[in-house]
Amino acid sequence: AQSVTQPDIHITVSEGASLELRCNYSYGATPYLFWYVQSPGQGLQLLLKYFSGDTLVQGIKGFEAEFKRSQSSFNLRKPSVHWSDAAEYFCAVGMKTSYDKVIFGPGTSLSVIP
Amino acid sequence: NAGVTQTPKFQVLKTGQSMTLQCAQDMNHEYMSWYRQDPGMGLRLIHYSVGAGITDQGEVPNGYNVSRSTTEDFPLRLLSAAPSQTSVYFCASSYGRLAGDEEQYFGPGTRLTVT
Question: Most buried of A114, B7, B42, B106, CB within 10 angstroms?
């Protein structure tokens, strides 16, 4: 069955430090991959997406993610975290099946220490 | 352009009551979806619609009904509320297929508590 895992439930980093959020998926074909961010009390906002081509994808707010087929991973990175990046981050996998389906991971909560 | 709007923002129901969560979008999107978000479980698809008059079930449809009479509106009905339906509900829309190269736009959510 298709699934998305985000191994880290909660991460705390200092402002200015680098960040990597992990995402692994289970799916038989090449999926469509997304990272969304959810600020407290808000809906989800798309950070970046991967469909094909270059496996390093640039997104908004200085984020990037790399698709590694051999590891079934799509990790999110940012070289220098800002206090405003504190939020919940969701990895999602899209697949074209008999009906379109997007599966979300459980999320990683990011705290930023000033 | 308001995007995706949801009402109400908060709701408390007693077990057995019914209610409708409203969702509207002004982007002329064909695809609309309802998700529920529970701690540690991410978002799970309840129902979705690929256009006016066409709806289908997602992963967790039991206890919920939907209809899509217009492109703009996609209400979610709780038939007989149960404590297990306590959750945050998100409506989303996109121009194209859910798993295609289209971004989903999310509403701000409705926080529902069933006592």
Answer: B106
